[in-house]
Amino acid sequence: MSVVSELLAAIAGLPRPLLVVAVGALVLGECTLGIGFVVPGESGLLIASAAVTDFGFFLTLSLSVALFAALGDNIGFLLGRRYGWRLRESAAVRKLGQRHWDRAGTLLRRYGVGAVFVSRFLPVVRTLTPAAAGSSGLGYGRFLPASLLGAGAWSASHVAIGWLAGASAKYVEHILGGAGWVVLGALVLSGAATWLWRRRKAPRTRPVSEVTDHCSGSDEFDRAA
To answer: What's the mean per-residue pLDDT of the chain?
Structure first.
């Protein structure tokens, strides 16, 4: 658990404004340029959320990340509106995978503006859906509310998960730090006792020589009969 404590301490030691800007920039890059293909913004958000220790910072981080994510969505939408379906053949889309672009288009045809909200929770696809929505001719007045709702729900849920995971890690580490040797000793003794009990309860097998002699005697008895 020392690795966990060191990681949490390093994260908690960052100035909060710097933490918010760094995570927001990572999320913005993932939504806009596909940088998340190399460094996932989702993973960065979860790690950074471990630094949340109060509800006030939870709201600050959630709202800030949601705004960065929505900004990235809007840039992608405008790029899609500007360049249309030619984006599918661009280097960025080929790097992420054209199948994800096609999947985004399928979701938009099937669910309409609801796909903008749903795709926010789908890795890679969320990067391409805004541009695909712009290319498809979806109205901006319909796109914007779905983008804001999706970004807000995605941000709040992931910050909450990171917060809870960080709090749980700290709690577990605190418990193990105070009674680690006791727990370790109890586990070792329990394992040894279980092994001895199973060894004693295991059925004893007869030696192979004894079984062979028995079978030979039976053959002689049959011939005598």
So the answer is: 76
